[in-house]
Amino acid sequence: MIDFSISDEVKEVISALYKFIDIEVEPLRKKFQKELENERYLYDENGVYVQEVQKALKQIREKSAQAGFYNMFGDPRLGGNGDEYGPIAVASIFERIAKKYGVDLFTMEIFPKGLFSGGLTPVLLGMNKEVMEEVLPEISSGETVLCFGLSEPDAGSDVWNIRTKAEKDGEHWVINGTKQWITNAHYAKYMMTFAITDQALVDKRQGGISCFLVPFDGETCTATSTIPALGHLGSATAIVSLDNARVHERYLIGDLHQGFGKALHGVDIGRVVLAAQCVGVAEWALEIAVNYANERKTFGTTIGNHQAIQMMLADCALDIYAGKNMLLNCAWKLEHQSEFPIKEISLTKAFCTEMVQRVVDRCMQIHGGMGLTNELKLEKAWRWARMTRVPDGTTEIQKRTIARRLLQGDMDF
Ligand SMILES: Cc1cc2nc3c(=O)[nH]c(=O)nc-3n(C[C@H](O)[C@H](O)[C@H](O)COP(=O)(O)OP(=O)(O)OC[C@H]3O[C@@H](n4cnc5c(N)ncnc54)[C@H](O)[C@@H]3O)c2cc1C
């Protein structure tokens, strides 16, 4: 029987997270109110978070790790507690946090980004034991951030088109290339770097891409510039240059030539987490809009009494109800079915990311001019929502996967 309910233990975790945010995150939000409200103070002239904000983010990660949150979904084979929480719990927790706090830089730092591009991510599985002992303590304590280096100027959707190459030189690998759109590159100590180790296998699309843990040394591996987008004055994404970056062979992660499977597995987890955040942010926005519709008056009555506003509210509810049920159904399939729900993950990622933008956009419209200001944080949520349609596979790439599965006979819903 399909059951989306969460256990009392998970409910307690959610309450504990709210408490943690009250005690550890709220004071920082107050302290950095000016930076959070005005990006001129959030970023430096290079578009990188100012030092004080970077320190605050680190503090949140470290406190989260001490409180047992940061690694609670981490891979158990790396020392995380991920075996204690199934996908329904993961989806519900991310959804509830986003529902209460919306798009919030500090709250979103409590867990590693997307659960795969940092922390005790399964992408790190297969690391050499010595390297594990060297790096896992700083990663799991939140002291060190990682980033996920797959995309390149000529390889986004088409990841087989990467150009970054790793060549063997004695006991070392020498890596050259450029990575683009790498979240956290400016703040990370290491990049999980995907590079070609066998071009012939890549040409046949049978492997040939390997994964390496490459340290940012400021010379051979450097985050060269941030990529501001959607009116932001800076961003967390950056271009990374690899110029004869040398790593010992023990920094290869997993099997040689088999890095691509790792990358895809990581991205799949990220899609579910992102969809959960989308559902939560949509609920957050609708609540604000309902409150406003009950207060704001025009033509002698609250705007909630105008049918045009009622239709927009109802359309938001239709979207959220559909998205939330898709998310939970997908999480349930991940938890209870032996076959990996590839189609459902793509359906959920595509729908929820498109859905949150529709919802936030309507909620802004309900607020009239106020919706366009940064006071209610709706415009910030709108920019975030618009962004979600691109990373972790664009909507079109999700639809491509869905159609392929249908054509292969996967007609089960
Ligand atoms: C905010 C943000 C954070 C990111 N973080 C990371 C990160 O940490 N690490 C990382 O490695 N990457 C990251 N990315 C990169 C992201 O994965 C890519 O941007 C994404 O995969 C799309 O690639 P692209 O931008 O090159 O677009 P392209 O692949 O060039 O696509 C351009 C357009 O063509 C469409 N398209 C492409 N191929 C097809 C097809 N076969 N059928 C139909 N339509 C198609 C796309 O949907 C899109 O509309 C991030 C991106 C963003 C925006």
Q: Could you walk me through the main structural features you see in this protein, from its secondary elements to its overall organization?
A:
The chain is of the alpha+beta class and 413 residues long. The protein has 3 domains: 114 residues, no CATH class; 130 residues, Butyryl-CoA Dehydrogenase, subunit A, domain 2, CATH 2.40.110.10; 147 residues, Up-down Bundle (Butyryl-CoA Dehydrogenase, subunit A, domain 3), CATH 1.20.140. The chain contains 12 helices and 10 strands. The protein has a 4-stranded mixed β-sheet. A 4-stranded antiparallel β-sheet has the order 2-3-7-6, with no helix packed on it. Strands 9-10 form a two-stranded antiparallel sheet. Strand 2 and strand 3 form a beta hairpin. Helix 5 packs antiparallel against helix 9, helix 8 packs antiparallel against helix 9 and helix 10 packs antiparallel against helix 12. The longest helix is centred in the last third of the chain and has 37 residues. The protein starts with 7 loop residues before the first helix and ends in a 6-residue tail after the last helix. The model has no long low-confidence stretch (mean pLDDT 96). Flavin-adenine dinucleotide binds next to strand 1, strand 3 and helix 12. GO terms for molecular function: oxidoreductase activity. InterPro entries: Acyl-CoA_dehydrogenase, Acyl-CoA_Oxase/DH_mid-dom, Acyl-CoA_Oxase/DH_mid-dom_sf, AcylCo_DH-like_C, AcylCo_DH/oxidase_C, AcylCoA_DH/ox_N_sf, AcylCoA_DH/oxidase_NM_dom_sf. Its cofactor is FAD. Belongs to the acyl-CoA dehydrogenase family.
